[in-house]
Amino acid sequence: MQGCLKFGLFNFKHIPRSPTLEDNTMPDYHVLPAQRLTGAVRVTRPVPPKSVTLTSPALDVMTDLRHIHAAVIELHMTMESANTYMIQRGIRSLLVLDQDQALNGLITATDILGEKPLRFIQERRMKHNEILVSDIMTPLDRLEAIPIEEIHHARVGDVIASLLDTGRQHTLVMENDADGKPAVCGIFSLTQIEKQLGTSIPSTEVAKTFTEIETTLMH
């Protein structure tokens, strides 16, 4: 029998072994050419997000967690550590996970720098550095998320209208994972949208806000 070794009543099939570095036999691979570095050499930076208009696809301003690692923090971490992490990453929100890596809430720069900490200190008689992420985050049962199917045909203006309607700076996007369970797959940030629009978005009446934005973009 070809490809087998026979010993008594047993047949042992020969299975070819993949080459390893120890074999020192890698005929299908070759050394890549390299150049010596001299003079002034720069380090490439990520391409900045592209500019958008109110009618641009909503996906253009979504932080897609299917391609970018989510910025997360655990429940038991301190509020100050969350603030430091946001500053280091240049972001304004963190998804809050429990010990099982399940979503428990969202903490934002507004939560940390707003009135929540002071109110918590007064109510609980505790120090600023003792406040935990879980103390001031927005819990899961108070969060809302937009289905990814809605985002596929939505515009930037639709996202802004949704954010202003809820009075929030961030909103989540959901999809069903491979097991059919809900999973956060994206985040919209009003600050990020402002950067890509090239103008600020006043927290005023929606209709008035769009008029102001459109007027600004035309000049």
UniProtKB/TrEMBL annotation:
SUPFAM superfamilies: CBS-domain pair (SSF54631)
Pfam families for this protein: CBS
Domain CBS intervals: 69-114
Gene3D superfamilies: CBS-domain
CDD domains: CBS_pair_proteobact
Coiled coil: none
Signal peptide: none
Protein's UniProt name: CBS domain-containing protein
